[in-house]
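Why this split exists: single-chain examples teach little about how molecules sit against one another. For that reason, every record in the complexes split bundles all components of an assembly together and asks for one structure covering all of them. Below is a record exactly as it appears in the raw files.
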Amino acid sequence: MSSKYPFAEIEPKWQNFWEKNKTYKTDLSHSGKKLYCLVMFIYPSGAKLHIGHWYNYGPTDSWARYQKLKGKNVFEPMGYDAFGLPAENYAIKTGIHPHDSTMTNIDEIRMQLKRMGCMYDWDAELMTCEPKYYKWNQWLFLQLYKKGLAYRKNAPVNWCPKDQTVLANEQVLSDGTCERCGTTVIQKNLTQWFFKITEYAEELLAGLDKITWPEKTKLMQRNWIGKSVGAEVHFKVDGSEEIISVFTTRPDTLFGVTYVVLAPEHNLVDILTTNEFRNQVQEYRNSIKSLTEIERTSTVKEKTGVPIGAFAINPVNGEKVPIWIADYALATYGTGCVMAVPGHDERDFEFAKKFHLPIRKVILQPGTNETDELTEAYTEPGTMINSGSFTGVNSDEGIEKIISYLEEKGFGKKKVNYRLRDWLISRQRYWGTPIPIIHCEKCGEVPVDEKDLPVELPYDVQFKPGGESPLISSEKFMNVKCPKCGSNAKRDPDTMDTFVDSAWYYFRYLNPNITTDPFDKSLADKWTPVDMYVGGAEHATMHLLYARFIHKFIRDIGYTNSDEPFSHLIHQGTITNQGAKMSKSKGNVVNPDQFIEKYGSDVFRMYLMFMGPYELGGDWSDKGIAGTDRFVQRTYELAMKFSGLLKQSASQNVYDVEKLSENEKHIYKKINQTIKKFDEEINHFRFNTAIAALMEMINEMKLLDACSKEIQLYALKRFITLLAPIAPHLAEECYNMLGSEKSIFENPVWYEADPIALVEDMVSIAVQVNGKLRGTVQAAINCSQTEVKNLLLNDEKIKKHLEGKEIVKEIYVPNKIYNIVVK
RNA sequence: GCCGAAGUGGCGGAAUUGGUAGACGCGCUGGACUCAAAAUCCAGUCUGGCUCACACCAGGUGCCGGUUCGAGUCCGGCCUUCGGUACCA
């Protein structure tokens, strides 16, 4: 049919218009009504834009457009998270250089993004693999290094003995084998760089109370940081000068310690193990070496361990208790040492039972006897018993009392411990930011001078697996003179975790070409924090925590004035396919292109928004897309029918409802109700109900024929404006057809609802008898209970239910419900 | 195991602080238009009973209880699904 909306012409037409007129170029010098709306930037993989990206970017752009129409100065940038493992793996497989494949992908993705028709300010585009960007990763590294927040230490990596390469966790299959060759992966220690995020643990925790994020995300970060308050207790070792420090949250159970456990990797193990036990200990350590971290920490696995022959001395009672090593003590948490209280800790209980270690009751459960045998660990508070001078004290108070006692005697102190570990940023990979450190035999690790940045990533590198970091193979890169002493030295061969790139990119968008600073400080002061950040929930603990950490660090070195990077955060839901996450490896990725070709960008984006609540996502189905397409067609036909109206008539901003005809009054009320509803819904990312409101509106539009031109224009102008955020191309075209010469987004206008039109004069009141609906009555708004009662007593149906009954009680909720309780 | 979210028609999903369950859309059924089809428009569509029909009656938001004049919504106890996490001393 000829009147079918020709999206294939219209959409490129407006995209070109917007680009040519720089409609979406943000003037950052005006920050008065600033709104920084950001989506997590895209990883330019070969899979290009999929439905998940559309679901993230389309609705968020609609929200940003709505804000722009409301008069906000909106900044909405887009860029590429261009470094990373997949490009390198692709290169290993195909021989195509990561730089080349990444650039090709970016070019295609940029085209796809432009076809979506989002409001991106393309002048702000950035890609992290460019020297002008990653130079500032290196700068950041040096600032952290200066403050002692970047340091090296030994840390295990997944190592495939056959491929001779380091594997990321996701490259290790669940059975602990290499995803490429099936060889069992082992753990190997390498000296690696860390950022001291733990220094900010307390502030990262406290800051969560000040940001508007989903509660579950904040909870995940709280758990991830894992603050616990307790004590550090020092145990002397019998016949040795060494001290074993343990962290405990239950110092009140100190008298119940019957053994001490060290993590098998703990340094003290070599020192303390007696000759007699040496073989056994070595054997045990070997036996757990092959286990992956996942197996090691599995809670279903039975605990194992061996004694090392040495004894620790309990500071509070001088008792000698055996020292064991066991897999359930983790080197990475607390001090790596545990005081075992089998009577009051489930793990210790299980372990003591298995190895026949003594179990001592030192906390009495209320309502039980001291002589009752413990059948399981009692972990709740109670009365302290068998605890020397502390016997009889309530265990909650005992915690503080024991700590005071320990501090007094120098046996320990109060201690706050965090689960959070420092951020390991070294990657034994090619496609990333080189670490700006030079290793000199004489001077040790020497930072590259800031004026020598960037340390450029060389192009010509053997990045295929085999050996260590790929950069080692580039002699040109590796061999440098020591900046301090001038002798021959080597560069650090590792690259940085790509989470470093994404930890501060929102600053860089404000001026991605600045060469004198990582970002424009004066703009950053005005434009950060990001006002709305939208992205996947899978980043809850990594990216979103790292960015908060780096932001606080940047603040502490005087580069920004805000405390948090993202003041509001929303996670879009996941779109699955037949219940499974879409992934290239599963081959269940749905390509959006087919829908864009068939229906156009507006219909597709609107369908994604209409599917359901944004934060829930859902299973993909194209079943209902015809519905949004129909809506678009009807809108287009409506605009066509009234084309030129803007030139034939003018409408007022407000009309007196009483002076309108019945049809006009109806339209007038409906459009104003729709404005109110739509505004509320879209403001809270409830796109599905916002669109439903527009559909209801268009269903009423058939009444326009019976309205004056003024009212027609009044309704259509408003309807098209509401449509503009969710179907921008269509709305522009419709407005154009009405007779406008300008883009809606050039001179943004938003219509406020006329409050008088929102008031209903008649309401329908539900009438219940004994809580069951028996009818409804039409009454004037705010009428009295007596009036409503008179109305309902005239209703035959309702009367029938009241006949011969005694009225016990009447509840009247004005304008809503009238409930009569009868006997 | 622990933490979190969610269970509503054939389907996706609506439902302010407890106040007319099923908005909006898909699908389906019937009708109009057409030589015919597509498209479009109109009507119907929770289940069961009764009825020519209108009406009416009963039941109904995962299950079992409770609070209340009134519960999808609040409380207690389960079941299922999906996310997160994994011995955190």
